[in-house]
Amino acid sequence: MKKWLLAATLILLILGGYVAAGPYLAIHGIAKALEHNDSARLSRYVDFPSVRINLKAQLGDYMVRRAGPEVQSSLFGAVAVGIAGNLAGAGVDTLVTPAGIGALLQGRNVWKRAIGDTASGDTYAAPAPARPLQGARHRYESWSRFTATTYTADGTPMVFVFSRSGLRWQLTDIVLPLRPTPG
Asked: How confident is the prediction for the chain on average, in pLDDT?
Protein backbone atom coordinates (compact mmCIF):
# COMPACT_ATOMS: atom_id res chain seq x y z
CA MET A 1 0.00 0.00 0.00
CA LYS A 2 2.86 2.35 0.81
CA LYS A 3 4.29 1.83 -2.68
CA TRP A 4 1.05 2.95 -4.30
CA LEU A 5 0.87 6.03 -2.10
CA LEU A 6 4.49 6.88 -2.88
CA ALA A 7 3.89 6.38 -6.63
CA ALA A 8 0.78 8.59 -6.56
CA THR A 9 2.64 11.30 -4.64
CA LEU A 10 5.55 11.14 -7.05
CA ILE A 11 3.22 11.42 -10.06
CA LEU A 12 1.47 14.42 -8.52
CA LEU A 13 4.81 16.14 -7.82
CA ILE A 14 6.02 15.55 -11.38
CA LEU A 15 2.72 16.78 -12.81
CA GLY A 16 2.80 19.87 -10.58
CA GLY A 17 6.39 20.60 -11.61
CA TYR A 18 5.46 20.29 -15.28
CA VAL A 19 2.52 22.68 -14.90
CA ALA A 20 4.68 25.16 -12.95
CA ALA A 21 7.40 25.03 -15.63
CA GLY A 22 4.82 25.32 -18.43
CA PRO A 23 5.08 29.08 -19.08
CA TYR A 24 8.86 28.88 -19.21
CA LEU A 25 8.62 25.94 -21.62
CA ALA A 26 6.22 27.99 -23.77
CA ILE A 27 8.63 30.95 -23.83
CA HIS A 28 11.45 28.59 -24.79
CA GLY A 29 9.25 27.02 -27.49
CA ILE A 30 8.46 30.46 -28.92
CA ALA A 31 12.18 31.29 -28.98
CA LYS A 32 13.00 28.04 -30.81
CA ALA A 33 10.16 28.57 -33.29
CA LEU A 34 11.37 32.11 -34.02
CA GLU A 35 14.97 30.93 -34.32
CA HIS A 36 14.00 28.29 -36.89
CA ASN A 37 11.32 30.44 -38.60
CA ASP A 38 8.83 27.68 -37.90
CA SER A 39 5.37 29.24 -37.92
CA ALA A 40 3.68 25.84 -37.39
CA ARG A 41 5.67 25.31 -34.19
CA LEU A 42 4.93 28.89 -33.15
CA SER A 43 1.19 28.22 -33.38
CA ARG A 44 1.58 25.53 -30.66
CA TYR A 45 2.66 28.23 -28.21
CA VAL A 46 0.59 31.20 -29.39
CA ASP A 47 -3.21 31.30 -29.35
CA PHE A 48 -3.48 33.51 -32.44
CA PRO A 49 -7.30 34.03 -32.31
CA SER A 50 -7.11 35.26 -28.69
CA VAL A 51 -4.12 37.51 -29.40
CA ARG A 52 -5.92 39.00 -32.44
CA ILE A 53 -9.11 39.71 -30.49
CA ASN A 54 -7.21 41.31 -27.60
CA LEU A 55 -4.99 43.46 -29.84
CA LYS A 56 -8.01 44.67 -31.86
CA ALA A 57 -9.80 45.65 -28.65
CA GLN A 58 -6.75 47.55 -27.37
CA LEU A 59 -6.19 49.39 -30.65
CA GLY A 60 -9.90 50.23 -31.01
CA ASP A 61 -10.04 51.58 -27.47
CA TYR A 62 -6.84 53.56 -27.99
CA MET A 63 -8.15 55.18 -31.18
CA VAL A 64 -11.45 56.15 -29.60
CA ARG A 65 -9.73 57.65 -26.56
CA ARG A 66 -7.14 59.39 -28.73
CA ALA A 67 -9.84 60.94 -30.92
CA GLY A 68 -11.56 62.46 -27.90
CA PRO A 69 -15.21 63.31 -27.33
CA GLU A 70 -15.26 66.34 -29.65
CA VAL A 71 -14.19 64.26 -32.67
CA GLN A 72 -16.56 61.44 -31.79
CA SER A 73 -19.51 63.79 -31.47
CA SER A 74 -19.32 64.90 -35.12
CA LEU A 75 -20.61 62.67 -37.90
CA PHE A 76 -17.39 62.96 -39.93
CA GLY A 77 -15.24 62.24 -36.86
CA ALA A 78 -17.28 59.16 -35.93
CA VAL A 79 -16.97 57.82 -39.48
CA ALA A 80 -13.21 58.54 -39.52
CA VAL A 81 -12.71 56.76 -36.19
CA GLY A 82 -14.73 53.80 -37.48
CA ILE A 83 -12.67 53.57 -40.66
CA ALA A 84 -9.42 53.85 -38.73
CA GLY A 85 -10.57 51.09 -36.38
CA ASN A 86 -11.44 48.83 -39.31
CA LEU A 87 -8.05 49.46 -40.92
CA ALA A 88 -6.24 48.70 -37.67
CA GLY A 89 -8.32 45.54 -37.26
CA ALA A 90 -7.45 44.42 -40.77
CA GLY A 91 -3.77 45.02 -40.05
CA VAL A 92 -3.98 42.94 -36.88
CA ASP A 93 -5.81 40.17 -38.78
CA THR A 94 -3.05 40.12 -41.39
CA LEU A 95 -0.08 40.23 -39.04
CA VAL A 96 -1.22 38.06 -36.15
CA THR A 97 -1.29 34.74 -38.01
CA PRO A 98 1.36 32.07 -38.42
CA ALA A 99 1.88 33.24 -42.03
CA GLY A 100 2.03 36.92 -41.00
CA ILE A 101 4.53 36.18 -38.26
CA GLY A 102 6.51 34.09 -40.76
CA ALA A 103 6.63 37.04 -43.16
CA LEU A 104 7.76 39.35 -40.36
CA LEU A 105 10.47 36.88 -39.43
CA GLN A 106 11.73 36.75 -42.99
CA GLY A 107 11.95 40.54 -43.04
CA ARG A 108 13.68 40.48 -39.66
CA ASN A 109 16.25 38.03 -40.99
CA VAL A 110 16.99 40.18 -44.04
CA TRP A 111 17.29 43.28 -41.85
CA LYS A 112 19.59 41.55 -39.36
CA ARG A 113 21.83 40.39 -42.18
CA ALA A 114 21.88 43.87 -43.72
CA ILE A 115 23.03 45.50 -40.47
CA GLY A 116 25.48 42.68 -39.68
CA ASP A 117 23.59 41.35 -36.65
CA THR A 118 24.47 37.72 -37.37
CA ALA A 119 25.73 34.83 -35.29
CA SER A 120 29.30 35.23 -36.57
CA GLY A 121 29.32 38.82 -37.83
CA ASP A 122 29.46 37.67 -41.48
CA THR A 123 26.73 39.17 -43.67
CA TYR A 124 25.97 35.76 -45.18
CA ALA A 125 25.80 33.94 -41.83
CA ALA A 126 22.58 33.09 -40.07
CA PRO A 127 21.01 36.00 -38.20
CA ALA A 128 21.57 36.24 -34.47
CA PRO A 129 19.01 34.07 -32.68
CA ALA A 130 15.84 35.70 -31.41
CA ARG A 131 15.67 36.15 -27.66
CA PRO A 132 12.02 36.90 -26.92
CA LEU A 133 11.27 38.07 -23.42
CA GLN A 134 14.93 38.09 -22.44
CA GLY A 135 15.24 40.02 -19.19
CA ALA A 136 11.46 40.01 -18.67
CA ARG A 137 10.00 40.04 -15.18
CA HIS A 138 7.95 36.84 -14.73
CA ARG A 139 4.99 36.46 -12.43
CA TYR A 140 2.25 33.93 -11.75
CA GLU A 141 -1.03 35.78 -11.31
CA SER A 142 -3.04 32.61 -10.72
CA TRP A 143 -2.83 28.87 -11.36
CA SER A 144 -3.72 29.46 -14.98
CA ARG A 145 -2.34 32.95 -15.74
CA PHE A 146 1.31 33.94 -16.06
CA THR A 147 2.77 37.26 -17.20
CA ALA A 148 6.13 38.26 -18.58
CA THR A 149 6.71 42.02 -18.48
CA THR A 150 9.30 43.83 -20.55
CA TYR A 151 9.89 47.55 -20.75
CA THR A 152 10.26 49.83 -23.76
CA ALA A 153 13.14 52.29 -24.08
CA ASP A 154 11.10 54.94 -22.26
CA GLY A 155 10.20 52.57 -19.40
CA THR A 156 6.63 51.77 -20.43
CA PRO A 157 5.66 48.19 -19.55
CA MET A 158 4.63 45.70 -22.23
CA VAL A 159 2.96 42.62 -20.76
CA PHE A 160 2.83 39.19 -22.40
CA VAL A 161 0.06 37.05 -20.91
CA PHE A 162 0.22 33.26 -20.95
CA SER A 163 -2.84 31.21 -20.07
CA ARG A 164 -3.10 27.56 -19.17
CA SER A 165 -5.60 25.22 -20.74
CA GLY A 166 -5.24 21.75 -19.26
CA LEU A 167 -1.50 21.13 -19.07
CA ARG A 168 -0.65 23.41 -21.99
CA TRP A 169 0.40 27.06 -21.73
CA GLN A 170 -0.01 29.52 -24.60
CA LEU A 171 0.51 33.22 -25.22
CA THR A 172 -3.03 34.64 -25.25
CA ASP A 173 -2.59 38.40 -24.93
CA ILE A 174 -0.05 41.14 -25.44
CA VAL A 175 -0.82 44.30 -23.50
CA LEU A 176 0.62 47.02 -25.70
CA PRO A 177 2.36 50.05 -24.19
CA LEU A 178 -0.28 52.47 -25.48
CA ARG A 179 -0.14 55.67 -23.48
CA PRO A 180 -3.41 57.39 -22.62
CA THR A 181 -4.05 60.78 -24.10
CA PRO A 182 -2.79 63.55 -21.81
CA GLY A 183 -5.30 65.94 -20.43
From this structure: 80
42-101 pLDDT tens trace: 889 999 999 989 888 888 888 877 777 777 677 777 787 778 777 777 778 777 877 776
3 state SS for the chain: CHHHHHHHHHHHHHHHHHHHHHHHHHHHHHHHHHHCCCHHHHHHHECHHHHHHHHHHHHHHHHHHHHHHHHHHCHHHHHHHHHHHHHHHHHHHHHCCHHHHHHHHHHHHHHHHHHCCECCCCCCCCECCCCCCCCCEEEEEECCEEEEEEECCCCCEEEEEEEEECCEEEEEEEECCCCCCCC
Residue 183 has pLDDT above 50, yes or no: no
